[in-house]
Amino acid sequence: MASHSGLFGMIESVVRQRCPRCHRGRMFLGWVRMYAACPICRYVFEREPGYFVGAMYVSYALAVPTLVLVAVLAHWLWPGLSGLTILGAALPLFLPLTPIIFRYSRVIWAHLDWTIDPGA
Would you say residue 4 has pLDDT above 60? Predict the structure, then answer.
């Protein structure tokens, strides 16, 4: 098993959507349903009520560049369309990515929080 200390260990743990404390337990049961606690180390993911409100900021930071990228791709595929039409074409292409953005925003938030305050 690879070492999970340092930046690369944390990045691997985020990419694999693992617990911020032990880096082994899964954070999600299904597409959007989370475990209440890590199945390996029992670390409680939602540390307080409203804990994942901060993940909305991470979600926004992930969603905006993704939507822009999808819009650029739509513009490349359909170069003669207006900006509003491109945005309209990009939106249905972007929507299937929202569960992935949701998951990663929570994982990144939990890892950022653990990095800042591991003792709580």
Answer: no
